[in-house]
Structures are given as structure tokens and as C-alpha cells.
Amino acid sequence: MKKIHAPFRFRWWHGALFLVAVTLAERLLSPEEEPANAGDKPGEEDREKTNPVINDYYQSLRRPAWSPPDWLFAPVWLFNNVVSIGGLLRLLNAPDSLPHRRELLRMHAVHWFLFTTFSYVYARLRSPVLGAVWTNADTILKVRSLYLAAKADPKVAYSYLPVTLWLAYASPLTVYQALANPDQLFRTPAPLSLPQTATEVPKNADGDPAE
Fold it and tell me: Which of 23, 97, 115, 174 could covalently link to 135 via disulfide, CB atoms 3.0 to 4.6 Å apart?
């Protein structure tokens, strides 16, 4: 009798490995941590930072009043990624007959590309403009994904909700930063003179945090 094999299914540990992979990729593309000066001792605040270089750059920018504190990004994105990967696993295990399945998977691929490269274009290249483009493109992508998933599988739709809400909150923040700050990648000055309503770290002539 011919043995019938059960169809392959993605398990939770596949999702865990994927989370580790995208996190490592994002960290590898992030700015390298600047070496401390001889005799300097890291303070408690520095030890609590997930990435001092990115956080210092974020703090150096002119930001609106609704800007979140830098310590909030790590736990929020960990939660967003875990929930998103849960929805991704459900999509991967769904039959190909599920409406919009392939389009949703393609948009997942674009989202993870934007996620892993954001720190590179925003903080490593010192480009608030690209940071705004990346964030707003991902927001549009997630709104579209949420709409399609709601018609196909409500449980998959729920997995898009946290990251969509966060990106919708972050998008106007990144636009404000792009308009209120010079862009070192494109070598352009700040397009508009917008007020600084969040705590700002003093900057030198190049736009970097002052020592």
C-alpha cells in the first residue's frame, strides 16, 4: 500500500527561527556602535539602550510632541513581530485557495525587507527622508494587507492590526522629521523650519550629536 505523507506544515519554531534571522539582519545593517573614549564609563542610561548609535541619532533630530521615548521601540517591535509572524505562519499553512493568499505573502516579503533595512537607511545613512519613505510605504502596505486579510481570514487580519496601528502612529512622526531636519545622505537642509517640541540633543555643524 502506498504511504500517504501528510502535507508539510510550518511550526512555531520555524517562526522563532525567522524572528531570530530578521532581528540579526536588522542589527547587522544598523550603525556600528561607536567606541567609547579612553577612561569613559558607560552610564546606566547607555546600558539600557538597545542601540546607542540609533537612539542618539533619533534624540538629535527635531521631533514633534507625540514622539515616543527611544526605550519604547524595542518592546513594541518585538510584540509587533511576534504577532505578525504568527499571522505569517497561518498564511503559509493555509491552502492556496485562500483568497488573496499569494498577494498577502508577497506583501509580507516587502514588509520584512523594509523592516530589516530601516535602521540602515534612517540611522546609518542619516536620512530622515528615506526613513519617512520606508515607514509610509510600510503603512500603506499594512493597511492594504489588513483590508485583504479581513475578507479572507479574520485571524490573519488580527495579526496585522498591532503593526498597522503602530505604523499609522509613526508615519506622521517620520514626515515631521524629514521636513524639520537636514538629510546627510542627500546633503539637503531642512525643508521647513518646524518647532522643536520634544527634548533635543545638541548637534554639531554636521547634524551629528555634539560631544
Answer: 174
Distance CA 104, CA 109 (A): 9
What one-character DSSP code corresponds to residue 6?
A: P
**Beta carbons within 8 Å of 122's beta carbon, 6+ residues apart:** 54, 57, 128, 130, 131, 134
Q: Residues with Cβ < 8 Å from 29, sequence gap 6 or more? A: 116, 117, 119, 120, 124
Taking the whole predicted model, whether its pTM rises above 0.85 is answered as: no
d(CA 107, CA 84): 12
d(CA 206, CA 184): 8
Report pLDDT digits (tens) over 20-53: 999 999 999 988 665 444 334 444 444 344 466 6
